[in-house]
Design a protein that fits this description.
By secondary structure, this protein is of the alpha+beta class. Helix content is 26%, strand content 42%. The chain has a six-stranded mixed β-sheet.
Length: 179
């Protein structure tokens, strides 16, 4: 969205912050649903990704790497919280917390992993759109837990096969309901 010259500055700030928040949330939907088009759309073409010591370089190369990895990450969810947006004209300093859950398997053993990271993003509004120009990820903590999916010890359901579960693009319900 573009800034309208006659628009109240406080209203424009709210609209800008909402657009930035939407970019953050759609990025995480992209990670969870293996929809790398959504992840790519969060970045400007010349953006830089510094993924907390695991990757540093062009964001488009990072997205290509995610395109290979995400379809194999069966159960994974990311939550975006504590979003702080400091606007300065067509730039914004954005900090957000990312709580990530994933089900993993190593040496034949399933386990659940919960991780908290912070994204420190330099957003820029170019061509009327807010996107990430540079992302720096900071790892805060991780907790691995034994696999123990019991659906509330059977209180939610005693037959998990009946549940509608999250899937990857294009099979997830969110894609089926668009149109």
């Amino acid at each position: 969205a573009t800034s309208t010259p006659n628009r109240d500055p406080a209203l424009q700030a709210l609209l800008d912050k909402q657009e930035i928040t939407d970019v953050l949330n759609l990025y995480l939907r992209g990670a969870d649903r293996a929809d790398t088009d959504l992840i790519a759309a969060a970045y400007h073409p010349d953006a830089i990704e510094e993924h907390g010591g695991l990757y540093m370089g062009p964001a488009d190369a990072y997205v290509a790497m995610m395109d290979e990895q995400l379809p194999h990450a069966k159960y994974m969810n990311h939550l975006c919280t504590n979003v702080i947006i400091e606007l300065n004209g067509d730039t914004a300093h954005v900090e957000s917390y990312i709580l990530a859950y994933s089900r993993m398997k190593k040496d034949g053993e399933k386990f659940d992993s919960l991780t908290l990271a912070r994204a420190v993003d330099a957003f820029e509004r170019r061509d009327e759109a807010w996107k990430i120009a540079k992302r720096q990820l900071i790892w805060e903590w991780n907790n691995d837990m034994p696999f123990a999916e019991t659906w509330g010890r059977g209180l939610i359901t005693d037959d998990p096969s009946k549940l509608i579960r999250g899937k990857k693009k294009p099979d997830d319900l969110v894609y089926a309901t668009k149109g």
